[in-house]
């Protein structure tokens, strides 16, 4: 899991995901032994963002492994694990200024994290609300990312619309004779 080769890291987390999804008798010892390493790996991503698609794939596989761990956990343990995952995903977000100059892999990580947050937050709304209430910096970072994403989508939509409006689809006749 601590290999330098990003492809090895990616395959490692794919394997870990399948182990976490195994029967509890098999999965629990691995979760206890490797879960903390998985969290440490994801925490390091904020400081050293992926620079290549291969590194990005390793991070995304790590997130999938964390989601598998959450799904495998007992119902009473899930809120604590979600409370670990959500700040990690928020830490992957870039502000609008950094997003413009970020390498493609970091930009893709930002987009994937935002998509995961949009999917997970409604499923775990109580955990999300308490996390945001207790951490104003997480709230502001998430708000800035969502706002930047909306502005980006609006800019793309407005750049597509003028081209469509410049050539009318129906021409009107003014000479009825």
What does this structure look like?
- InterPro entries: ARM-type_fold (IPR016024), Laa1/Sip1/HEATR5 (IPR040108), TPR_LAA1-like_C (IPR057981).
- It comes from Champsocephalus esox (pike icefish).
- It contains 8 helices and no strands.
- By secondary structure, the chain is mainly alpha-helical.
- The chain has one domain.
- Helix 1 runs parallel beside helix 3 (53-72), helix 3 runs antiparallel to helix 4 (78-91) and helix 7 (125-134) crosses helix 8 (136-166).
- The termini are far apart.
Highlighted features:
ARM-type_fold, 79% helix, Laa1/Sip1/HEATR5, 8 helices, mainly alpha, 177 residues
Rg result: 21 Å
Number of domains: 1
- In total, the number of strands is 0
Helix and strand sequence: HHHHHHHH
GO cellular component, one term: membrane
Region (Disordered): 153-177
Protein name: LAA1-like C-terminal TPR repeats domain-containing protein
InterPro entries: ARM-type_fold, Laa1/Sip1/HEATR5, TPR_LAA1-like_C
